[in-house]
Amino acid sequence: MTVSTFKRGLKLPTRKHATEGKPVELVPMPKQVVIPVNQHFGAPNKALVNAGDKVVRGQKIAEGAGPGPMTVPVHASISGTVKKIEPRLQSNNTSGLCIIIEAEEGQDQTTTMFMPPLDPYTCTREEALGRIRDAGITGMGGAGFPAHVKLNPPPGKAVDIVIADGAECEPYLTTDEAVITEKPHLLITGLVGTMRINGIKRAIIGMEDNKASLIPLLEREIRLNDAAKDLDISLGLCRTRYPQGGEKMLIKALTQREVPSGGLPMDAGCIVQNVGTLVAIAEAFTLGKPLIDRDLTVSGGACKRPKNIRAPIGTLITELPPEFIEIDYGSLQKILFGGPMMGNAVSTAAIPIQKNTSGIILMTGEETVIDAEGECIRCSRCIRNCPCRLSPVLMNNALESDDMEEAVRTGLMDCIECGSCSYICPARIKLVQRFRVGKQRLRAMSQRQAAVKQEKTPPAERAAGAANPGRA
Q1: Rounded distance, CA 415 to CA 128, Å?
Q2: Handedness of CA 71, 77, 81, 82 (dihedral sign)
Q3: 3-class DSSP assignment, residue 132
Q4: What tens digit of pLDDT does each residue of 22-63 get?
Q5: How are strands ordered across the β-sheet holding 60-64?
Q6: Closest CA to 202 of 156, 254, 252
Q7: How many other CB atoms sit within 10 Å of the CB of residue 14?
Q8: Vertex 49, ends 47 and 53: CA angle to 5°?
């Protein structure tokens, strides 16, 4: 099989040995979960329950506050009593509204409030998209984009390929590999179901070549799936290179197509879904199960028992039995939610697991870099290694000069925040952090400009725009 790749990027130490090949272990049922009301990219949700309410595992507890497709509901991951609804610290280092559910002593956790099963091969397109939304499924690769929106491209977008992203290029993380190994039938069911939603006949399951041993397993499942017999589903091996799992990189490696600047995968005729997302979609159809559990990797030098786990959404690893994970707090120097390249460093491990939490990395001092920033030496390594072919040094110069227009012109909004530039920079300049802040400043500026424009708009025109948003 030909091994493909993209240009630039990094060859990183994978550090997957601690959990590679390990099965997914179910965590002991937590006595309490802290479930963020908003776990997706899009419009905010509002709580549907109040303190004191009894809830059942699978029950909808939060949903979009208004009309629009960019929302997905949130469901109770355990049965119990709503104790509080209050802001709590989340993995993005901001406080967000959370629903705290406490399981009562001896309470039956086998009772669930799942939806009726729905055949993904015979239901209508609208029923399929509605089921995916009602199940609260978001992209599980990290971004948290609503899955039903990604699977519903607007008219005029000619999408002809679905790509299952199983590259898992981040060091330490082995969750996707475990999901493929343990649930290949659900992966293929979810993949075929998403293909049929838009009448797509071709799909590619993309993996890095360090997972080549999984090829026979997947080929067997494709052969056994009767609904896949009239479809073209192939396997694409890519070189183990970071960030091979990024949508743009994977599309380029597997199809030689390129996502245009400012565009989305659909602009290259592709839909990309993480393998975990496809499994969640299959469970939503075959079991009626909403997204209430999350597979993730817990690893790092300060984790005495690194493993792949399946935990209810909202679980705090600090409340699990000490012998299950066993954190060495004496050597713990850094906690990451996500991978070491794109994850967020947090101040405490007492943060809830969310739908997009792919891993929790507990790092020692030997695994981290805490060097002070130096002066840029104009070595151009950030340019030579940027997988998006941007010029990070020019973007950084523009941000330091407060020239937002120049920052955008040199590629700020095309940056995927993969961290390649920060990793390779000999001066240890925190480039990605600056780009994240720059994007936030740009969004705030756009919101202020929109507000000013709204204030200057005559009331009659504002009313007409609200009545006919298609013209606004």
Answers
A1: 33
A2: negative
A3: helix
A4: 999 999 999 999 999 999 988 899 999 999 999 999 999 999
A5: 45-47, 60-64, 74-75
A6: 254
A7: 18
A8: 155
